[in-house]
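Please annotate this fold before class:
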Amino acid sequence: MTVEQNVLQQHSQKHQQTLLNQLREVTGTTDVQLLQQALQVSNGDLAEAVAFLTEKNAKVPQQDEATYYQTAQITNDRYISVGSQADTNVIDLTGDDKDDLQRAIALSLEESNRAFRETGITDEEQAISRVLEASIAENKASLKRTHTEVWSDSPNPHDRKRQENCPVGLKNVGNTCWFSAVIQSLFNLLEFQRLVLNYSPPARMQDLPRIQKEHRNLPFMQELRHLFSLLVGSKRKYVDPSRAVEILKDAFKSSESQQQDVSEFTHKLLDWLEDAFQIKAEEDREGEKPKNPMVDLFYGRFLAVGVLEGKKFENTEMFGQYPLQVNGFKDLHECLEAAMIEGEIESLHSAENSAKSGQEHWFTKLPPVLTFELSRFEFNQTLGRPEKIHNKLEFPSMLYMDRYMDRNRDITRIKREEIRRLKEHLTVLQQRLERYLSYGSGPKRFPLADVLQYAMEFASSKPVCTSPVEDINTTAPPAGTTAHLPPSASTGEQPDTYVPAEGSSSGPQAQQHQRVSIHKPFTQSRVPPDLPMHPAPRHITEEELRVLEGCLHRWRSEVENDTRDLQASISRIHRTIELMYSDKSMMQVPYRLHAVLVHEGQANAGHYWAYIFDPHQQRWMKYNDISVTKSSWEELVRDSFGGYRNASAYCLMYIDDKKPFLIEEEFDKETGQMLSGLDKLPPDLKEYVEADNKLFEREMKEWDALQARKLQQEKLALAAASVAAQPMCTEPCPPDNTAPQHDPEYMEQQSPTGDSKHLQEDTERAISKAAAEHDEKSPEALLNTAMKVEYTRLLRFAQEDTPPERDYRLQHVIVYLVHNQAPKKIVERTLLMQFADRNLGFDERCKSIMKVARAKLELIEPDEVNMEEYEMWHQDYRKFRDTTVLLLIGLELFLKKSYVEALMYLIYAYQYNKELLAKGPYRGHDEELITHYRRECLLKLNEHAAVLFETGEEIEVNAGLSIMNELVVACIPLLLVDEMEEKDMVAVEDMRNRWCSYLGQEMEPNLQEKLTDFLPKLLDCSTEIKSFHDPPKLPSYSTLELCERYGQVMTSLTLNRTPADGR
């Protein structure tokens, strides 16, 4: 057979498989043989095939069942599907509207078939083309976005620099999180990584048939090598996979877009890689049967053993990804057991002829990489759309496959029969236990032991009156009157005593309670002691009570013992079932969990990421697009088992634990040293990565040079401003050889206004007080005393416990320094700078003190005060004031319900504050306060955008989606980055659920299209922090104005705060 004939045959086989998949999805029929029969009968006509299967579903003819169990051989058996996803929701075509539905299905399939005949492109290929084209289009669009938008990379290349030995991430270039999750999982299989990196294209590439070039497998393979080489040796934190994605996009032409499915993409990816390796294998082994490493790595075989009315059959089939149903099962083994057995299997190992039929699957060869596809989507016929199954499904980190192997067929059948028998016994015991725990014949059931206890309590109670209403009638007034009420009933006053009315019950109990408080139903939470807690029998003798109590005690003990025995027996059976396969003979085929691909969202939209085990560091890593972080088994369980945050595992990748070459590093043959980084790459890829690293290094150098120029320009501008601000002197001034003192702007201004005036007044007040207390009039003595006076005043402020609206740190930098335990030398120099202010020159005394202070500053040696540390403390204080301004403006706008304007102020207030708090708990403001209002602002914007979307008007809908895309979606990563903040996580879920709820509602097609395009962005779980290039420009506030406005807004928050604020 020529290469061209082989290729054409493979293409025909793939077309046949596509038709089988379409029939399976439409009709719900999962049996390959029946589907093949339908295609054979209809000569490939899909409409007739659907009609044929519909007829069989409606009539269920017994004479055709043999076809189902007689497994036919097909040429390319690796495409045979096992346990398809569609069998969870078989579409009913037997109703009254069967003909209309049948015609619609046939028309749809005929269009797909016609498209294939005209273009040679299958529906599966078109689906992949749509999402790839959308990804590339969005990526190109992102390059055209202006710098004010938030979807660009950080402009600082140092933020994008890879940390030493940290894995490299993949950039999401638009709905391509599925690509990242799959590629990272495969890349971390070191054997697969080596195969890709060391792949060399065929020498006769130009002579290959045209159909191979149309599929672009070889160019994609080359681009995948480039991508893998960057993941190995790049100096970037993450790399852009656009070129690899674009190769895929060019392979198939289409104009529509949709979120791609991980299992479909993985299947197609391995298919392309297999074709690429097959071409190379055929070239390398001319005349011999080629060996394809992709098949050896990812494909296995199983034996289908079936029986029909006593007639047995066996057939071997190949499989790649093994599909498993999730719905109705609690763990992976239950899914596997169900997938391995179809129908009644008793006659499979019975000598008697039986009408029962069924088939079993037994693995004869497992691949080194065993991939399970978890079917978590089903079609909801009522809503007319697919839905995701959020059920919890557990899976182990170590999976033993012995029980599913053909060589263990006999012992597994014995154990399965034993488990079946135990489960039947377990069902009986559970039913018996349920009768004890839910006793009764009515709608409400109670534990029988409790019922007996209640009966015992009733029998033991003593009656307080002969009638249940007698004591109430004698102490309460007739309805509608107040004549006999005690004073408190009408006036609200509490009487000191309450004497029972005449005729009320008397006796020992009544005599003991001379002072009885009145029961107040709205202010008293418990029933007063004079009222009986339970009803009581009126007529019972001591003998009757004694006999009854004895019986009830004995019966309750018997019931409790029976319950404990049943529970113990149930626990023992559960334990026996769990340990059924725990003997060493059934633990010889271990598979270790390598990767878990997680999907969060709904059936129509969502986000993918992967958990991948690092065997060398012995820990789990989370690969979420550009973000690669350390993780844990606990986090994996939370996100992958299901039932939490709409996230669950969609694909499980296990590797043979007895084949360490899959994850072993490569060693140099000469030196014996482990290869790492660029040393792992062949020469051509090493040159490629080095060139890319040089480009990145040049980008960082250019950035550093640009920042240095900006810093120099700022220094020159400050110096020029300082010179321009110096007062003109008409008289000759003595030369000043002292170095200029650059004071912080909040400590010295060029005019005696604002902060400087406030600071000057404090300083002069300290000087005056020092002069009044000090007899010696020398400037140095006055300076020392004045500094002590001022420091004592500020220290008192620092030690005072004040409410949030009166934060003394805003009034003076010294208070901030003392709060944060700054070094003593820093505090002393800061205080000395206050008294060295040139504005202290209005009288001779202040002027002389200022000169002494400036002289003392000059005498301070460089080793006495670390000026870099000094500047750092004052920079932190400047950032603290900026944070305060951002916070107060954001809160003011929030209180005015200007949420769009408030958001950016609150976002930057949180970011600045977080940087400060990282240095100390008192460096910034209350993080919970800022977090709360940032979260509330996003929730308000989300609600407003949803209301606009619900109007259905084009302008309002676009405005709502604009708010979501530009503000809410851009800020969601800021809430997700710290997963310890549970309220933020809940808020994100609330926002996502609000928009996901629209999926089941009827709406105009244009709205549905906008929603489908928007949801993937909202459901993207990446914690990539988008860069906000321009923070809001802050107004200049004096200290007094800042303190006053901050106090006002904090007071307003206190007055407006409600329990719903969650604070």
Observations:
- The CA atoms of residues 829 and 1014 lie 56 Å apart.
- The chain has a mean pLDDT of 75.
- The longest helix spans residues 683-725.
- The first strand starts at residue 169 and ends at 170.
